[in-house]
Amino acid sequence: TAASLDREMIELHYLMVSVSDPAGLTDFATVTVTVLDVNDNSPRFPNNENIFQYSLSESAPRGFLIDSIPVVDADVIDEGKLVFSVKFPYSSNFTINSTGHLFVEFLDFESGEISTSLFQVQDSLNNTITGVVIIIN
User: What predicted TM-score, i.e. pTM, was given to this entire model?
Assistant: First the structure.
């Protein structure tokens, strides 16, 4: 039967092979086929939730870990290779490192009680998803 191979569905396939000759001698073997990964999935947020809202005290120190943004990518080839970056508008209130850890940079609620920024997650084929970080007083 003809079917597409998808490593995310089934990584290993086992085939029973038999051979026989005209004299009637027969032998059997099991062949294992391992499906290698290709980058055919984009990163995604669990439950498709792309808005992350936090309430912080203005006294939270610089470098305080706010959260680790959850992102999954079914491709083994992208494991540990997703890159996070702040896009627009750039916020001086927080930073996000390349692995998705969100840190306090500088909080000043006198300039506004809400800070909103977009961030992007990119895999090794430049497939991207966008999230929103909202920090409120």
Answer: 0.71
